[in-house]
Specification:
Keywords: Flavoprotein, FMN, Lyase, Prenyltransferase, Transferase
Radius of gyration: 15 Å
Order of helices and strands: EHEHHEEHHEHEH
Structural class: alpha/beta
Organism: Desulfobacca acetoxidans (strain ATCC 700848 / DSM 11109 / ASRB2)
CATH topology: Rossmann fold
Number of strands: 6
Largest sheet: 6 strands, parallel
Family: Belongs to the UbiX/PAD1 family.
Shape: globular
Low-confidence stretches: none
Strand content: 5-15%
CATH architecture: 3-Layer(aba) Sandwich
Helix content: 40-55%
Catalytic activity: dimethylallyl phosphate + FMNH2 = prenylated FMNH2 + phosphate
EC number: 2.5.1.129
Mean pLDDT: 96
CATH superfamily: Flavin prenyltransferase-like
Number of domains: 1
Protein backbone atom coordinates (compact mmCIF):
# COMPACT_ATOMS: atom_id res chain seq x y z
CA UNK A 1 0.00 0.00 0.00
CA UNK A 2 2.94 2.32 -0.37
CA UNK A 3 5.19 3.62 2.37
CA UNK A 4 3.05 5.45 4.98
CA UNK A 5 5.94 7.74 5.97
CA UNK A 6 6.54 8.98 2.44
CA UNK A 7 4.85 11.75 0.44
CA UNK A 8 1.54 11.27 -1.32
CA UNK A 9 1.56 12.48 -4.94
CA UNK A 10 -1.53 14.26 -6.27
CA UNK A 11 -2.08 15.00 -9.93
CA UNK A 12 -4.90 17.26 -11.11
CA UNK A 13 -5.60 17.02 -14.84
CA UNK A 14 -8.01 18.84 -17.12
CA UNK A 15 -11.14 16.78 -16.57
CA UNK A 16 -14.18 18.38 -14.99
CA UNK A 17 -14.11 17.98 -11.22
CA UNK A 18 -11.00 19.80 -10.01
CA UNK A 19 -12.89 20.29 -6.74
CA UNK A 20 -12.10 16.62 -6.00
CA UNK A 21 -8.38 17.37 -6.22
CA UNK A 22 -8.67 20.52 -4.13
CA UNK A 23 -10.63 18.73 -1.42
CA UNK A 24 -8.15 15.82 -1.47
CA UNK A 25 -5.35 18.27 -0.73
CA UNK A 26 -7.35 19.77 2.15
CA UNK A 27 -7.92 16.33 3.63
CA UNK A 28 -4.27 15.30 3.28
CA UNK A 29 -3.24 18.52 5.03
CA UNK A 30 -5.76 17.86 7.83
CA UNK A 31 -4.45 14.29 8.17
CA UNK A 32 -0.87 15.70 8.27
CA UNK A 33 0.15 13.66 5.22
CA UNK A 34 2.86 15.26 3.10
CA UNK A 35 1.58 15.98 -0.40
CA UNK A 36 3.38 16.70 -3.67
CA UNK A 37 1.22 18.25 -6.38
CA UNK A 38 1.29 18.68 -10.13
CA UNK A 39 -1.52 20.39 -12.06
CA UNK A 40 -1.80 20.31 -15.85
CA UNK A 41 -2.43 23.44 -17.88
CA UNK A 42 -6.01 22.31 -18.55
CA UNK A 43 -6.45 21.58 -14.84
CA UNK A 44 -5.45 25.17 -14.08
CA UNK A 45 -8.07 26.43 -16.53
CA UNK A 46 -10.74 24.26 -14.91
CA UNK A 47 -10.12 25.89 -11.53
CA UNK A 48 -11.12 29.19 -13.16
CA UNK A 49 -14.12 27.72 -14.99
CA UNK A 50 -15.54 25.46 -12.27
CA UNK A 51 -14.70 26.94 -8.87
CA UNK A 52 -14.14 30.13 -6.96
CA UNK A 53 -10.64 28.83 -6.15
CA UNK A 54 -7.41 29.16 -8.10
CA UNK A 55 -4.73 26.63 -8.90
CA UNK A 56 -2.45 28.74 -6.69
CA UNK A 57 -4.75 28.07 -3.72
CA UNK A 58 -4.53 24.35 -4.43
CA UNK A 59 -0.74 24.58 -4.63
CA UNK A 60 -0.66 26.39 -1.29
CA UNK A 61 -2.32 23.35 0.33
CA UNK A 62 0.46 21.02 -0.89
CA UNK A 63 3.83 20.63 0.77
CA UNK A 64 5.47 20.83 -2.68
CA UNK A 65 4.05 21.86 -6.04
CA UNK A 66 5.66 21.40 -9.43
CA UNK A 67 5.07 22.70 -12.94
CA UNK A 68 3.80 20.01 -15.31
CA UNK A 69 6.72 20.74 -17.66
CA UNK A 70 9.37 20.12 -14.95
CA UNK A 71 10.59 16.62 -15.77
CA UNK A 72 13.49 17.14 -13.34
CA UNK A 73 11.17 17.24 -10.30
CA UNK A 74 11.77 14.56 -7.65
CA UNK A 75 8.43 12.83 -8.40
CA UNK A 76 9.74 12.07 -11.93
CA UNK A 77 12.20 9.55 -10.47
CA UNK A 78 11.57 6.10 -9.06
CA UNK A 79 14.36 6.66 -6.54
CA UNK A 80 12.19 9.34 -4.89
CA UNK A 81 10.12 7.24 -2.50
CA UNK A 82 6.39 7.95 -2.26
CA UNK A 83 3.38 6.15 -0.84
CA UNK A 84 1.75 6.31 -4.27
CA UNK A 85 -0.23 8.68 -6.45
CA UNK A 86 -3.77 9.72 -7.25
CA UNK A 87 -4.78 11.55 -10.43
CA UNK A 88 -7.94 13.38 -9.41
CA UNK A 89 -9.68 14.15 -11.66
CA UNK A 90 -8.14 12.12 -14.46
CA UNK A 91 -9.00 13.24 -17.98
CA UNK A 92 -9.24 10.76 -20.83
CA UNK A 93 -6.21 12.47 -22.40
CA UNK A 94 -4.21 11.81 -19.23
CA UNK A 95 -5.56 8.26 -18.96
CA UNK A 96 -4.48 7.66 -22.57
CA UNK A 97 -0.98 8.98 -21.91
CA UNK A 98 -0.62 6.83 -18.76
CA UNK A 99 -2.00 3.69 -20.44
CA UNK A 100 0.44 4.16 -23.32
CA UNK A 101 3.46 5.21 -21.21
CA UNK A 102 3.62 8.53 -23.06
CA UNK A 103 5.52 10.46 -20.40
CA UNK A 104 5.73 13.87 -22.07
CA UNK A 105 4.60 15.72 -18.92
CA UNK A 106 5.47 15.53 -15.24
CA UNK A 107 2.02 14.30 -14.22
CA UNK A 108 2.19 11.37 -16.64
CA UNK A 109 5.85 10.66 -15.84
CA UNK A 110 5.06 10.57 -12.10
CA UNK A 111 2.20 8.14 -12.79
CA UNK A 112 4.45 6.00 -14.97
CA UNK A 113 7.10 5.94 -12.22
CA UNK A 114 4.42 4.97 -9.70
CA UNK A 115 3.43 2.00 -11.87
CA UNK A 116 6.97 0.85 -12.63
CA UNK A 117 7.88 0.96 -8.94
CA UNK A 118 4.71 -1.05 -8.13
CA UNK A 119 3.27 1.66 -5.92
CA UNK A 120 -0.47 2.34 -5.76
CA UNK A 121 -1.81 4.52 -8.57
CA UNK A 122 -5.47 5.56 -8.42
CA UNK A 123 -7.06 7.19 -11.46
CA UNK A 124 -10.28 9.08 -10.74
CA UNK A 125 -11.43 9.04 -14.36
CA UNK A 126 -14.06 11.71 -14.94
CA UNK A 127 -15.90 11.22 -18.22
CA UNK A 128 -19.33 10.00 -19.21
CA UNK A 129 -20.59 8.31 -21.25
CA UNK A 130 -17.68 6.04 -22.12
CA UNK A 131 -16.99 4.54 -25.54
CA UNK A 132 -15.01 1.38 -26.22
CA UNK A 133 -11.73 3.29 -26.59
CA UNK A 134 -12.11 4.79 -23.10
CA UNK A 135 -12.90 1.38 -21.63
CA UNK A 136 -9.92 -0.20 -23.37
CA UNK A 137 -7.64 2.52 -21.96
CA UNK A 138 -8.99 1.83 -18.47
CA UNK A 139 -8.46 -1.90 -18.97
CA UNK A 140 -4.90 -1.31 -20.13
CA UNK A 141 -4.09 0.97 -17.17
CA UNK A 142 -5.66 -1.55 -14.77
CA UNK A 143 -3.61 -4.37 -16.30
CA UNK A 144 -0.49 -2.28 -15.62
CA UNK A 145 -1.47 -1.97 -11.94
CA UNK A 146 -3.60 1.18 -11.71
CA UNK A 147 -6.87 1.29 -9.81
CA UNK A 148 -9.66 2.87 -11.82
CA UNK A 149 -11.96 4.77 -9.45
CA UNK A 150 -14.54 6.95 -11.24
CA UNK A 151 -16.30 9.42 -8.93
CA UNK A 152 -19.59 7.52 -8.78
CA UNK A 153 -21.65 8.58 -5.79
CA UNK A 154 -23.19 6.11 -3.39
CA UNK A 155 -26.32 6.97 -1.45
CA UNK A 156 -26.40 4.41 1.39
CA UNK A 157 -24.63 6.95 3.62
CA UNK A 158 -27.46 9.43 2.94
CA UNK A 159 -25.49 12.39 1.60
CA UNK A 160 -26.99 15.79 2.33
CA UNK A 161 -24.57 18.01 0.41
CA UNK A 162 -22.31 17.97 -2.62
CA UNK A 163 -19.42 17.88 -0.14
CA UNK A 164 -20.82 14.61 1.27
CA UNK A 165 -20.75 13.12 -2.24
CA UNK A 166 -17.20 14.37 -2.85
CA UNK A 167 -16.02 13.02 0.51
CA UNK A 168 -17.43 9.57 -0.21
CA UNK A 169 -15.29 9.40 -3.37
CA UNK A 170 -12.24 10.74 -1.53
CA UNK A 171 -12.77 8.20 1.22
CA UNK A 172 -12.72 5.43 -1.39
CA UNK A 173 -9.43 6.84 -2.70
CA UNK A 174 -7.90 6.90 0.78
CA UNK A 175 -9.10 3.32 1.31
CA UNK A 176 -6.95 2.29 -1.67
CA UNK A 177 -3.90 3.55 0.23
CA UNK A 178 -4.91 2.16 3.62
CA UNK A 179 -5.27 5.67 5.06
CA UNK A 180 -7.78 5.81 7.94
CA UNK A 181 -10.49 8.46 7.67
CA UNK A 182 -14.00 9.40 8.75
CA UNK A 183 -15.17 10.93 5.48
CA UNK A 184 -18.38 8.91 5.15
CA UNK A 185 -20.38 6.27 6.97
CA UNK A 186 -19.58 2.80 5.71
CA UNK A 187 -22.18 0.23 4.81
CA UNK A 188 -23.61 -1.21 8.01
CA UNK A 189 -22.41 1.65 10.24
CA UNK A 190 -25.02 3.65 12.12
Amino acid sequence: MGNPNKPFVVGISGASGVIYGLEMLRILKKLKIESHLVITRAGRLNFQMETEYSALEAEALANRAYEDEDLTAPIASGSFLTRGMVVIPCSIKTLSAIANSYSASLLVRAADVTLKERRPLVLVVRETPLHLGHLELMQRAAAMGATILPPMPAFYHRPQTIRDLIHQTLGKVLDCFGIPHQLFHRWGEP
